[in-house]
Each structure stands twice: as C-alpha cells, then as structure tokens.
Amino acid sequence: MISNIPFDPRLMLIGDAWRDAAGGDTLPLSNPSDGSVLANIARGGAEDVDAAVAAARHALDHGAWGRMTATERGRVLSAVGRAVIEHADELARLEALDVGKPLRQGRGDALALARYLEFYGGAADKVHGDTLPYQAGFTALTWREPHGVTAHIVPWNYPMQIVGRSVGAALAMGNACVLKPAEEACLTVLAFARIAQQAGLPPGALNVVTGLGEEAGAALSAHGGIDHISFTGSVATGSLVQAAAAKHTIPVTLELGGKSPQIVFDDADLDAALPYLVNAGIQNAGQTCSAASRIVVQRGVYDEVMRRMAERYRALRVGPALSDLDVGPVISRRQHGIVSHYLAVARDSGLPIAAQAELVPDAPAGGYYVRPTLVADVPESHGLAQEEIFGPVQVLIPFDAEADAVRIANGTDYGLVAAVWTRDGGRQLRMARALKCGQVFINNYGAGGGVELPFGGVKRSGHGREKGFEALYGFSSLKTVAIHHG
C-alpha cells in the first residue's frame, strides 16, 4: 500500500465513485529519486472527461453542492482544510516520493494547501455585490455568480499548492471542478480528493481525471461543457489550451512560467538578501515558475555577491527526497536532459562556473539528479539569461546604473516575478513601477508565499490572477440587474 490515506492511484474520482479509466489502461509513475516505478495511474481519455464533466454539471443542477449557500460551502472547505492538516505528514511523504522535493518542502506544500482552504473557506460568503447610482426610477445592482463547470489542469511541480489556489477558489465561488493533474505527479492530488470526499465535499463538486496531457488534458480543454479553464504549465501547452477554449469562447487563466530576476543594488543588505538569492533559485530543484533564475547585480557588489553565493552553493547537499536534504532530483529523465543541455551550453559558451553543489555519495544511481550550478558573467542576451531552464541553475548578470537594471530585468519574453534589494526608498518605488511583471518584492522574495497575494504574470508568463481575493473574481462572472420601479 503506497499510502495510509485510503486511495488507489489506479482509480479516478468521478461523481461519488472511484473508477478505472474507460479504456482500462494505466500509466507508470516514476520515483525521481531512484528511477523506479512508484505506482500506476489510470490513463484517462475523452470518455472519462465526458463522464467527469457530466458529474460536475449534475452536482450543480441537481446535487447537494449546487443547493449550498456560500456560508455552507465555506464550512465544507474549512473542514477539508482541517483534514489536510491531519494528513500533512503523509501528504508530504507522497509529494517527496512523487515529485522529488525534500520532505520539509513537501510538508510546506501540504500546509499551504490547508491554508488556501482556510482562506477560501472564510472568504466564500464575503464576495458582495454593489448598488449603483443610476437614473431616477431605477435601482441598479450587481452580484457575482459561478461560471459553472471549471477545468483545472495543474503541473507536476507544486500539485498541492496549485490545487489549493485554483480549485479552492473555484469551489468557494460555487463552481464544480474537473481536475486533470500532470501525469508525472498525481499522488497528492488523488489523496487530496479522497480526503475532501471523506471530509464532506459533496459528490461531483470535485472530479479528478488522470492521464496524458495530449489525451485527457486535450479532451478537457476542448470540451464544450466547460465554462472556464485554469491552466498552469508551459507556454507551448498554454497556447494550445487557449486556442481550444477560444472555440467555445470561454475564459482562461494562464500561468506559464518566467525568467524572474532578483536585482541587487550596491546599497543592499547582503546579509538579508543572501538566503533569498540562493533559495529562490534552487527550491524544488529550480522547478518553480517563479524561480529567481537571474541574479542581476550592480558592479560595486558583484564580486562579493558571487563569492557569497558560491560559498552557499558549495555547501548544498543534493540527494534523495526522503533524506530531506537541501535539493532533491528533478522530476524526470526528460527534465534531467533539458537541464543538462543548458549546462552544456554554458560550458560550450565559455561561461565561468562560479560554483556547483555536490551530490551525496549514497544517492541512487537511477535518480534524476542535477548539481545546482551558479553561472557567472552571463550576457543579458544569452540563452541562459533568456530561456526558462526549469532546473537548479542561476545566472549572474552585472549592471551599472538603475536604467540598466530595468532594461535587463524587462528584457525577456516573461514577466512573472521580480525582487529589488535596496535601502533607497525612492528607488524601491521607481523600480516597482518600472518592472513589467505581476509581482514585485522589495527586500524580500515571495513574501513567505502568502496565499493572500494575487499571483500571475504579463507577456508570455500568462494572464489572469489566482491566489488572494482576486481569484474569486476570476472564478465568477458579474451580473448587472436594473429594476425600473418608477
């Protein structure tokens, strides 16, 4: 038995039933730490997506979920959140096995999932409409209604967190959800669905279809019964999802990655900055959409920042996820090949390697390990400074003046997150306004991952916002009512 949580990874949740894929096929899940087969999951397809969408629609039109008030929905979500906390250690273990992240990072994700449910449980009955000043003889007002059936296609790097921020908000607004997790990492999503079911989430409110992106994911994106899509993943796949949604003219929230900079000025508090400069790049083996992959440093402190970051890199320990070291493996053999290619490009380009972490001696030979690497003196136009690597690789880029920092920071196709390290208050605000991205952090990075903070990007990082109260607006539509009473 893979888990103490009573779920079978070979089954999907549709309505109130756990069932095999309609075609009867399964797919293997790989353990990134040693390359072994961890479990088998159902290979869902179009027929399973049809059934899940029908179950969600039934839950809205005829089931208990559709009859619940906002207050009742909030209480259910809060109960699910409490159940997640009770199972946090087991969820952390599953996430470590499935994704390859160290145990403490997996536990942090489980607690974040619980916090999302707590936040959206409390927010469910706080979404209010307005009364609008209008002509004499009229009363005009607005209120928000759920889209209906929402599709959620989540990636393999942070399954629990992204389920929390998208499914949690969608359920709070009264939608019914069809969730398609990435085929590389499904265990915590399936375990969560079982926990939610046991905690009292009514049948059909949450349906989970596992399988390949090009099969189950494509069928879900193109389904005529879907009213809104939330997608987190690559730019290429996000474009396909948006094109499929356009055929049914339904809204889409896209979060598609980034090439996020941390900008360090000469007057920065380096002692405060240093942990963020490194950790934001190597957390989850760098497989984070908002990873700080570019460290943009003013020349007056460039050498010192490089030296101090290099010391930290050389002290990192890399090994199996359950060993709970600093860095685990990347998710798959394919991702290992992608990151290794970029490291080869760095070597072939003659870029100096400022430091590399070491793999622990007892790391299994079959694991997908990449040594975290700090690359120095990278030209701002180089591929390593422009393209999303999605691995534990950070590049150092020097700059001279504030205008140069802005140009470099904005000089990619992405615009998700940025950080600015400076004691100058005027510069803090100038930079915050000048940077083209969805979030700017001043003298911090990530602000502790607060669920209250709207998250999303511009340019090729996508559009729409999740997290915080803003997500509730995205998972609802606004209705205007004008009453002529004389």
Would you give an account of this structure?
By secondary structure, the protein is an alpha/beta fold. The protein folds into 2 domains: 12-256 and 464-481, 3-Layer(aba) Sandwich (Aldehyde Dehydrogenase, Chain A, domain 1); 260-450, Aldehyde Dehydrogenase, Chain A, domain 2 (3-Layer(aba) Sandwich). It is 39% helix and 22% strand. The strands form 7 sheets. A 7-stranded mixed sheet has the order 15-17-18-13-12-20-21, sandwiched between helices. Strand 20, helix 15 (425-434) and strand 21 form a beta-alpha-beta unit. Helix 3 crosses helix 7 (187-198), helix 4 (88-99) packs across helix 5 and helix 4 (88-99) packs antiparallel against helix 7 (187-198). The longest helix has 21 residues, at 103-123. The model has no long low-confidence stretch (mean pLDDT 97).
